[in-house]
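hi support,

uploading two proteins for the ticket. first:
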Amino acid sequence: FHTGEREEKCIIEDTPSDTLVVGKYKVQRWDIHKHDFLESAPGLGMFVTVRSPSGEVLLSKLYGPQGTFSFTSYLPGEHFICFQSNSTRLAVTAGSKLRMHFDIRVGEHFLDESAIQAKDKVNEVNVRLEHLIEQISHVTKEQDYERKREEKFRKTSEETNSNILWWAIVQTLILISVGFWQIKSLRDFFISKKLV
């Protein structure tokens, strides 16, 4: 994605609790003379701030033009991952465009291939089995989280449907009472004018 030099961009990542989140990014600055993005942005860094659904800051750190960060979610819900460059130029003169390459991995535990190759086959199978167990655990957490979200959504939908039903009944009663009042008023008017 593209962003301004002094602009803060936030990404929302919905994660279950106790989940490892790993993010990698690379920043490129627009070069006016070459009309292209520079491969590395010299002297440019990024402030990375991560906030939990409750607003607590989980991570706030300055990185270089490319970097890797990670955090563990303690609460289920939407986590805000915000990026802002460390540019010291004034907002009026900081008109440069930045291109951000961003990759995020949720709940992944990476295997160290060199360590696996160094061990014998039994250990390799054991390490891969532990990795699969971790992945199964992560999938189970993800499903539980989605199930809770679906229950909350269903409850909200049922409450909304109930409110809509009562509102329709109230509207119907008001409409009927206004109709009777109009009929009575017209009848009384016609009687007073001796038209009926």
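and the second one:
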Amino acid sequence: MASEELAQKLQRRLQLEESGAAAEGEAEAVRDPAAAEEVEERSCLTASAGAELSAKLCRRQDINEGAAQPRRAAVFNPYTEFKEFSRRQIKDMERMFRLYDSGRDGYIDLMELKLMMEKLGAPQTHLGLKNMIKEVDEDFDGKLSFRE
């Protein structure tokens, strides 16, 4: 879906919500059934949410559908983000991450994860490794960063 088209649909939806004109929405649904289905699907997801939460849910749905890219955190500080771990534990985890990051690119990819699991004495199947990555991969790049 083009970004202009998405922006127009969002503007139309905001106008409908502000005016509270349900009759306009029904008339528009009769003219364009595909748009009505999409608006109905989104409205059921965000029916009881506030405006801010609604916007976040719509963005998350767009990311899941591939229409938008996830935002990356500008600065990552593991000591403030993971308060449940001590500084020593975080340093140990970072050292282990660097040890298994053989490409030195800041990510552990599928082959590096395979080697890591073999060295730890728990070899996995190819599908098992992919599922492990999929469980924690927040930015959907198929690799694991230290933050993930």
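thanks. also noticed: The chain is about 65% helix and 5% strand.
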